[in-house]
């Protein structure tokens, strides 16, 4: 399965960078996502995460602030009318200075998906009432901030959890 | 939204189209699409809050100071867009998108307060292109908010 490298980018105030997303293939479907994406063959997953975060959000993350692998999960989901599956990897990236923001670089479908960025205070996630990708993010974030390693079971994001 | 501070400077956001980085970046007024059920002034007030952190009552915006129709490509899609511009004068405002209503549109890299003279002198791309004249006109004729 393809690896997807995501970064939990934290600004100097400890706020988390998330992307406001919509599925262009299903315009009512909205969620807030950890930036990051596919690791190219032979690419270092840390550098892939840094590259993807820059392409998607414009935020420049110095590779030396990226921490160790702390989160993994195999996921499947539908995007632009197709099913996708990947092995997610998550690493913390604590910025030591206000973020430098440069131009983004996205393909057409990604450009139609990623609407905006916002820096979230960790406690905001629990009460936000919106979907996150990964779905576990509000509970996951405090564990990762505490230095824990979390390997989560497979999640099919299209299956709406029973309430 | 033509947001002008006490020094007669207008706030412009700096950004581009992520799907066509070769087109470079441009400067543009805060604002955006009108959602279903919204009046133009309500959309302008909502977008201003999201993009700058400044909260304003749509009813206080008054009538548009400018309108135009424009034709552009963004994200690979072609848009024919009818735009309404509202004037809002403030003493000063520090852009803050960290609140729960705030966000930064993907492709936006920064912002700056511009004088009409600086707008006239720059080689940077401006939207709307008639902004220097628009600014002169609204500052000449508009009342300063108490």
Q: Kindly provide the radius of gyration of chain B, computed on alpha-carbon positions and rounded to a whole number of angstroms.
A: 15 Å
Element string of chain A (H = helix, E = strand): EEEEHEEEEHEHEHEE
**How many strands appear in the DSSP assignment of chain B?**
9
CATH class of chain B: Alpha Beta
Main sheet properties of chain B: 4 strands, mixed
Largest interface: A-B, 24 and 23 residues
- Assembly state here? heterodimer
Helix content of chain B: 10-25%
Tally of domains of chain B:
1
What pattern of helices and strands is seen along the backbone of chain B? EEEHEEEEEHEH
Radius of gyration of chain A: 15 Å
Brief write-up:
The complex is a heterodimer of chains A (163) and B (146). Chain A is of the alpha/beta class and 163 residues long.
Descriptive overview:
The complex is a heterodimer of chains A (163) and B (146). Chain A is α/β, with parallel strands linked by helices and 163 residues long. Chain A contains 4 helices and 12 strands; from the N terminus they run ββββαββββαβαβαββ. In chain A, β6 and β7 form a beta hairpin. In chain A, 33% of the residues are buried. With 146 residues, chain B is α/β, with parallel strands linked by helices. Chain B has a single domain, classed as Nucleoside Triphosphate Pyrophosphohydrolase (Alpha-Beta Complex), CATH 3.90.79.10. Chain B contains 3 helices and 9 strands. Chain B has helices at 40-52, 116-121, 131-141; strands at residues 2-4, 10-15, 26-28, 66-74, 77-85, 87-89, 104-105, 108-114, 126-127. In chain B, β4 (66-74) and β5 (77-85) form a beta hairpin. Chain B is globular. The chains are: A alpha/beta (163), B alpha/beta (146). β9 (114-120) of chain A pairs antiparallel with β7 of chain B, so a sheet runs across the interface.
Secondary structure: elements and pairs:
The complex is a heterodimer of chains A (163) and B (146).
Chain A: E1 2-10, E2 16-23, E3 26-33, E4 36-38, H1 45-57, E5 59-60, E6 66-79, E7 82-94, E8 100-101, H2 108-113, E9 114-120, H3 122-127, E10 132-133, H4 137-145, E11 150-151, E12 155-156
Parallel strand pairs in A: 1-7, 3-10, 6-11, 6-12
Antiparallel strand pairs in A: 1-4, 2-3, 2-9, 5-8, 6-7
Chain B: E1 2-4, E2 10-15, E3 26-28, H1 40-52, E4 66-74, E5 77-85, E6 87-89, E7 104-105, E8 108-114, H2 116-121, E9 126-127, H3 131-141
Parallel strand pairs in B: 1-6, 3-9
Antiparallel strand pairs in B: 2-3, 2-8, 4-5
């Amino acid at each position: 399965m393809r690896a997807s490298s995501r970064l939990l980018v934290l600004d100097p105030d400890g706020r988390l960078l998330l992307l406001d997303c919509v599925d262009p293939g299903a315009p009512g479907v909205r969620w807030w996502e950890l930036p990051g994406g596919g690791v190219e063959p032979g690419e270092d997953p840390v550098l892939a995460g840094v590259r993807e975060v820059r392409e998607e959000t414009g935020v420049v993350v110095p590779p030396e602030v990226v921490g160790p692998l702390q989160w993994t999960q195999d996921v499947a989901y539908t995007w632009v009318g197709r099913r996708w599956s990947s092995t997610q990897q998550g690493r913390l990236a604590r910025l030591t200075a206000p973020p430098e923001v440069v131009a983004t670089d996205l393909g057409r479908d990604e450009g139609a998906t990623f609407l905006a960025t916002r820096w979230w205070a960790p406690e905001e996630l629990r009460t936000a009432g919106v979907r996150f990708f990964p779905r576990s993010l509000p509970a996951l974030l405090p564990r990762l901030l505490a230095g824990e390693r979390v390997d989560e079971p497979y999640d099919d994001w299209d299956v709406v959890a029973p309430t | 939204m033509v947001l002008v501070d006490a020094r007669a400077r207008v706030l412009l956001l700096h950004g581009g189209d992520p799907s066509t980085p070769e087109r470079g970046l441009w400067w543009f007024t805060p604002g955006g699409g009108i959602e279903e059920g919204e009046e133009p002034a309500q959309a302008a007030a909502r977008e201003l809050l999201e993009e700058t952190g400044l909260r304003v009552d749509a009813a206080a915006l008054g009538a548009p100071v400018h309108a135009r129709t424009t034709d552009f490509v963004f994200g690979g899609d072609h848009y024919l867009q009818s735009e309404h511009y509202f004037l809002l004068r403030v003493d000063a405002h520090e852009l803050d998108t960290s609140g729960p209503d705030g966000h930064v549109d993907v492709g936006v890299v920064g912002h700056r307060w511009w004088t009409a003279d600086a707008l006239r002198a720059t080689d940077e791309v401006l939207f709307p292109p008639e902004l220097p004249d628009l600014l002169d006109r609204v500052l000449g004729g508009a009342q300063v908010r108490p």
